[in-house]
Inverse folding.
């Protein structure tokens, strides 16, 4: 479009330009700008989200898409220039919005980028920020002549909107003007004009689309000479102090914001719908492999779920507006299996094939919805505590059967929603890696780790923070679900901290009763809680409503008995910086016998014992202390009331210790005389500064073979193993050290009599070179024999420790 020279059209104004007569004349631009928000500086919504949708704010989303982080350069600039709580109330980005509304196509659809929802207001806000610093033809309106000529030039001749500062009450308010009407009354050589302008409003929600317009009326006069030249002009009839102050014609984008690039701005605001388009038909579905999906329903969406016969799937659904979407599941044969308007979907595949999830939106609606997809394969393992944040998490698992099949590693939040998933087919015998780096599993939310597989797996998880904090344990099988979990010890003295954890691994919402007991088994407090499917709960015992002074233990029991609970207990010792930490998965197979297979007690190490009579009757409990060679050193009994607890160092059980004992206590065998069920834990820690801490559940016996799925033995780390022959006869125990491919690189065996202990480090048993190259360990004995054992891994600098029972 050819534009007139600015100086030329304002230098002389002939009356012929204003040919309107008494009847009103109307002129309008060829297109109408769109309504938007002016982003006041007092609230700084572009960087705070205060007057919009909260965080992440529009510029944070821009930074995330462009830089991969929320607090990037554009946001930093915006915090300095677009947010000032002391700004005058009318200060904001009205001119920048007005320029963008004239120069850019209106964003009318939402979009999604890497789970970040770009709402229409986000896009309009990003455009407003980009147009801060727009190149502009600027005009000072110092007379009605300039005002009138601007209307004629842009709206009559060029048919182009332009920006007017209406200067309301001395404030600055810029709006795009797209239409005007004017008429005049002739009084001699004076014409009295009444002109209405129509402009776009910014008094709308940031997500508003379309046109919201307002109008304003101004009155002024022109005095002309005989040749039609204007020789005088002025505002009148109330417009003297209420008329536009300036005008602008936006020419080109030139962002002041040093963190913004116009090409990136266009790329961001052009993101429409979600990354899975074009999945608009059953023939073009997008695959759902598991995990979290943030989606946008502008039209019909179709997704495929590849399943084998017997697989299950749970689809958790979060919808902005329920009843606005309909979800249908179709079988590979085309039959409708499930229908939902927002409730979770669960089903099992009867045949192998591709199942289709159909999402139908309401007419004309753009609905953001989230899917959390979890596949249920034949075998499930869980690690109950994923710390998230700056912690590093390493996982190892064994496929000792070497069967081909699928493995899915999921990070679940505490609501049980699968946040991210790693999948592999035909895994190696041994797989090891960091969750974040090797498996690309990252979540900012605390929760738990879940592994689904077609074949049985064994595994271990290690969480560490810098050079000081570490905790870890073996994976728990979903087959170990229980209807009641007992927590045999609460450590809160001398700044110890205790956290109780629960996970509902079932498919139904469960109600539970929790009871806190004193040392004698008396109930100190009770409450009821609800756990939805997959939900995890962890609480510091001191923050629980049922906490009371003197609390020694706790139980959590389902109101309707179902084996759907997994429990764990977490301790922090009072070491400087809380360096001593441990996570103890709690067993469900409590019985009348327990074994503490290793007691470390010297100038450096201490071993703690905590146990609970979980039965309904009191019991005499027998404690048998054995030396490393299996000989009986001493036997004592203690009375434990129902739900009563005993917490001590093992040698404190025996009044004659140590004078009458000719050898240190190596292990303990614990039996309820009247068959009451017992549960217990062991804690291992270092004395002095107490920098190291590990814990594990007490078990009775173990089947005749077992594996350790994680080893570490080098100049920085040591791995130790302690086990006791709990069988009735002497037997050879064979230990095989294997590399990641399953090749044996070392062998060690011991012949153990009943109650005899085997205690060694990998380096001592297999040699330094073999121990350093080992990935996992296998233990075998005769089919009719059994054992109980523990493993410990510690740093040689005395700072970190972890361990668990050999399962």
């Amino acid at each position: 479009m050819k534009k007139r020279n600015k100086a030329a059209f304002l230098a002389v104004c002939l009356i012929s330009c204003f040919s309107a007569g008494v009847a009103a004349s109307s002129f309008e631009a060829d297109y109408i700008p769109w309504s938007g928000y002016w982003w006041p500086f007092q609230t700084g919504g572009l960087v705070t989200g205060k007057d919009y949708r909260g965080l992440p704010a529009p510029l944070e989303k821009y930074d995330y898409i462009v830089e991969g982080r929320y607090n990037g350069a554009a946001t930093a600039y915006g915090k300095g220039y677009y947010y000032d709580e002391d700004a005058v109330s009318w200060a904001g980005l009205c001119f920048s919005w007005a320029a963008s509304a004239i120069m850019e196509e209106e964003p009318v659809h939402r979009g999604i980028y890497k789970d970040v929802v770009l709402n229409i207001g986000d896009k309009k806000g990003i455009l407003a920020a980009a147009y801060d610093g727009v190149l502009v033809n600027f005009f000072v309106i110092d007379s009605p002549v300039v005002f009138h000529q601007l209307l004629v030039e842009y709206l009559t001749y060029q048919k182009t909107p332009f920006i007017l500062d209406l200067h309301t009450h001395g404030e600055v308010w810029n709006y795009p003007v797209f239409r005007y009407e004017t008429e005049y009354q002739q009084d001699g050589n004076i014409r009295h004009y009444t002109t209405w302008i129509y402009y776009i409003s910014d008094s709308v929600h940031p997500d508003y689309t379309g046109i919201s317009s307002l109008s304003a009326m101004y009155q002024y006069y022109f005095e002309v000479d005989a040749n039609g030249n204007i020789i005088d002009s002025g505002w009148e009839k109330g417009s003297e102090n209420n008329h536009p102050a300036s005008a602008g014609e936006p020419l080109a984008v030139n962002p002041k914001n040093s963190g913004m690039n116009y090409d990136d701005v266009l790329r961001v605001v052009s993101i429409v719908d979600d990354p899975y388009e074009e999945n608009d038909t059953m023939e073009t579905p997008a695959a759902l492999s598991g995990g979290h999906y943030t989606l946008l329903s502008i039209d019909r969406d179709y997704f495929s779920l590849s399943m084998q016969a017997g697989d299950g799937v749970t689809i958790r659904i979060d919808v902005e507006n329920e009843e606005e979407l309909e979800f249908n599941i179709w079988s590979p044969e085309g039959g409708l299996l499930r229908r939902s308007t927002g409730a979770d979907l669960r089903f099992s595949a009867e045949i192998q094939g591709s199942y289709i999830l159909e999402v139908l939106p309401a007419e004309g609606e753009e609905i953001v919805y989230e899917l959390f997809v979890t596949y249920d394969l034949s075998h499930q393992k869980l690690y109950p505590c994923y710390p998230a944040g700056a912690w590093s998490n390493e996982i190892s698992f064994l496929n000792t059967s070497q069967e081909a099949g699928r493995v899915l590693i999921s990070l679940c939040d505490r609501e049980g929603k699968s946040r991210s998933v790693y999948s592999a087919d035909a895994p190696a015998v041994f797989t090891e890696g960091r969750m974040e780096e090797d498996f690309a599993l990252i979540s900012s939310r605390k929760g738990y780790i879940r592994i689904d597989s077609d074949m049985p797996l064994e595994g271990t998880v290690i969480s560490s923070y810098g050079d000081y904090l570490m905790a870890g344990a073996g994976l728990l099988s979903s087959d170990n679900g229980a209807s009641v979990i007992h927590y045999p010890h609460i450590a809160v003295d001398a700044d110890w901290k205790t956290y109780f954890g629960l996970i509902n691994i079932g498919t139904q919402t469960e109600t539970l009763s929790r009871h806190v007991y004193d040392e004698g088994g008396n109930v100190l407090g009770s409450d009821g809680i609800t756990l939805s499917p997959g939900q995890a709960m962890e609480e510091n015992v001191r923050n629980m409503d049922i906490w009371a002074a003197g609390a020694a233990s706790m139980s959590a029991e389902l109101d309707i008995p179902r084996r759907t609970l997994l429990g764990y207990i977490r301790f922090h010792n009072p070491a400087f910086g809380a360096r001593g930490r441990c996570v103890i998965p709690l067993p469900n197979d409590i019985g009348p016998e327990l074994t503490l297979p290793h007691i470390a007690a010297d100038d450096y190490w201490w071993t703690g014992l905590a146990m609970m009579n979980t039965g309904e009757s009191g019991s005499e409990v027998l404690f048998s202390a054995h030396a490393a060679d299996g000989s009986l050193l001493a036997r004592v009994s203690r009375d434990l009331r129902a739900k009563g607890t005993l917490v001590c160092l093992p040698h404190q059980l025996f009044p004659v210790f140590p004078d009458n004992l000719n050898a240190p206590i190596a292990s303990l065998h614990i039996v309820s005389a009247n068959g009451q069920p017992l549960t217990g834990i062991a804690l291992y820690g270092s004395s002095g500064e107490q920098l190291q801490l590990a814990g594990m559940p007490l078990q009775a016996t173990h089947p005749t073979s077992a594996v350790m799925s994680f080893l570490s033995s080098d100049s920085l780390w040591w791995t130790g193993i302690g086990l006791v022959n709990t069988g009735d006869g002497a037997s050879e125990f064979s230990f095989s050290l294997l590399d990641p491919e399953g090749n044996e690189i070392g062998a060690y065996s011991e012949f153990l009599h009943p109650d005899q202990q085997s205690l060694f480090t990998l380096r001592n048993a297999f040699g330094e070179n073999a121990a350093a190259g080992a990935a996992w360990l296998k233990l075998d004995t005769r089919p009719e024999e059994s054992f109980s054992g523990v493993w410990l891994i510690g740093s040689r600098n005395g700072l970190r420790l972890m361990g668990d029972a050999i399962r």
Notes: The chain has six domains: 25-34+140-252, 45-135, 286-375, 377-466, 478-697, 705-785. The two ends are 80 Å apart (CA to CA). The CA atoms of residues 733 and 750 lie 5 Å apart.
